[in-house]
Design a protein that fits this description.
mainly beta, two-stranded antiparallel sheet, 1 helix, binds zinc ion
Length: 115
Amino acid sequence: MQIEFRKVLHDNSFLCFEQNGVSFKGSFKKLSNSLVAVELQASGKVLVDCDKCAKAIDLQIDEKIELKVYDGFFKDENEDLDVIECFDSIIDFNQIAKSEIEAIMCDYHYCINCK
Ligand SMILES: [Zn+2]
């Protein structure tokens, strides 16, 4: 799911989509001409490998994601780390969801036997 930056409304718009088998539900709204706030609730399961014995584990994802998308190069004055820059003036929610899932998967995970 994608939306052009200029088409984002100042009131909440709701969205619901799936990425890598994980469902994302939430809303987004424009805070200023170049800043959009996104809130998503991710829920579902992904398959990861145990970092100790490499056994496949079903990882339950149940996470609230809050971030901001900035249209262009973001000057990090407030050190707001949850800002994603967007350079083609299109917000790509699937890409955002994909990197959130990847970030979760990159964490260390252990199976029941290795915990
Ligand atoms: Zn293990």
